[in-house]
């Protein structure tokens, strides 16, 4: 009995060391899941790896175990807004009457020791280095100390990364943008030339296309029709902007704001000849950016994404469609622009180089297409 327990403990420790330190998996805390360890890496070939160390005697127990696992996976999918998850179940103690080859619900394997890895082609496909990585020169207490220290160091580094992303920072760029919006409203009123400023700098397609007043694509986003319009946009900018600036960093945040404003303006003049003002196109871009960021950090923000960010976007889009006097095209353009430019700029510690390159390509194509449609295609 002690030999079996030691064998299982040893193989579980080695597996944890490999998946956590080499493949960037993180433990999932689950209530009621005894004698099993759940690991997640939503960008991995297997989003979930489950290591089961309790004894399973026969097919009936194995079926019930997989049924419970599927229910837990369904909950994780809902929490993380994932439509599909590849799951790997690793069993370390199966009886002779439990037959994995009959199970086709999830990928499963029985690992008595490291030699059993060769029996499963899918393991060699997705984790070709696992056999070598499970070999240690230490044994006994020294091996336990090494594995524990390595895992603790990796978890510490991951915690430091998360803290650097979510730690509250002073949103100086947001404050500057708020000051600009207020000044662009108050100063013209103070000098009595507010109507002239609106006429000269609002977003107006015919003047942009016919007289090449391209600055209007940006200046219109800093003007507002009345005090209520200004206060509503400033409040939304403060709430969304201060969060996004903290998450993305000041330089990326400013790029997101300006690009979203630009894309919102282009879509607006593509489909509308009415004059438009307001920062709401850029603000919708911040929503799109938060959506992309939240999806990559959905382990931390899954509930916030479902209960706050997505409903906020849907409600504001509905208001845009059904309330008069609102430039719905600027909102849609800003939302798409914010999402796309965030894909190109990347999310800290999450986006790969290939994802960012693809993001730049897609965003560039979209931007050039919108410029062509807005400025060179006659309606």
Outline the structure in words.
The chain is an alpha/beta fold and 379 residues long. Strand 2 (36-40) and strand 3 (48-52) form a beta hairpin. It starts with a helix and ends with a helix. Helices cover 65% and strands 8% of the residues. Helix 6 (172-191) runs antiparallel to helix 10 and helix 11 (250-271) runs parallel beside helix 15. The mean pLDDT is 92. The protein has 2 domains: 2-165; 170-375, Rhomboid-like (Rhomboid-like fold, Up-down Bundle), CATH 1.20.1540.10.
In short, what is this structure?
With 379 residues, this protein is an alpha/beta fold. It has helices at 2-22, 59-80, 121-126, 130-133, 140-166, 172-191, 194-201, 205-211, 216-219, 227-248, 250-271, 280-296, 298-322, 328-345, 353-375, and strands spanning 26-28, 36-40, 48-52, 56-58, 87-91, 94-97, 107-110. The protein has two domains: 2-165; 170-375, Rhomboid-like (Rhomboid-like fold, Up-down Bundle), CATH 1.20.1540.10.
């Amino acid at each position: 009995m002690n030999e079996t327990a030691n064998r299982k403990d040893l193989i579980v420790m080695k597996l944890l060391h490999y998946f956590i330190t080499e493949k960037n998996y993180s433990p999932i805390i689950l209530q009621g899941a005894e004698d099993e360890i759940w690991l997640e890496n939503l960008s991995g070939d297997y989003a979930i790896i489950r290591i089961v160390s309790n004894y399973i005697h026969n097919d009936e127990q194995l079926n019930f175990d997989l049924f419970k696992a599927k229910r837990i996976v369904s909950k994780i999918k809902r929490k993380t807004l994932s439509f599909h998850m590849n799951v790997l179940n690793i069993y370390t103690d199966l009886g002779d009457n439990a037959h994995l080859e009959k199970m086709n619900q999830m990928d499963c394997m029985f690992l008595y020791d490291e030699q059993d890895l060769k029996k499963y082609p899918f393991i060699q496909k997705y984790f070709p280095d696992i056999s070598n990585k499970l070999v240690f020169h230490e044994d006994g207490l020294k091996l336990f100390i090494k594995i524990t220290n390595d895992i603790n160091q990796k978890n510490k580094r991951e915690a430091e990364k998360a803290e650097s992303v979510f730690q509250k920072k002073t949103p100086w760029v947001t404050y500057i943008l708020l000051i600009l919006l207020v000044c662009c409203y108050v100063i013209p009123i103070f000098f009595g030339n507010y109507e002239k400023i609106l006429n000269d700098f609002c977003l107006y397609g015919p003047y942009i296309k016919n007289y090449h007043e391209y600055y209007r694509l940006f200046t219109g986003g800093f003007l507002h029709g009345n005090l209520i319009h200004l206060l509503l946009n400033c409040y939304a900018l403060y709430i969304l902007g201060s969060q996004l600036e903290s998450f993305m960093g000041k330089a990326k945040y400013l790029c997101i704001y300006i690009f979203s404003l630009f894309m919102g303006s282009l879509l607006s003049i593509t489909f509308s000849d009415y004059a438009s003002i307001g920062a709401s196109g850029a603000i919708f871009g911040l929503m799109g950016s938060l959506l992309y960021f939240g999806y990559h950090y959905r382990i931390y923000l899954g509930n916030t994404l479902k209960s706050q960010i997505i409903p906020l976007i849907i409600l504001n889009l509905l208001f845009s469609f059904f309330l008069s006097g609102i430039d719905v095209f600027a909102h849609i353009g800003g939302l798409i622009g914010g999402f796309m430019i965030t894909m190109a700029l990347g999310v800290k510690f999450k986006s790969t180089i290939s994802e960012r390159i693809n993001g730049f390509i897609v965003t560039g194509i979209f931007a050039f297409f919108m410029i062509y449609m807005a400025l060179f295609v006659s309606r």
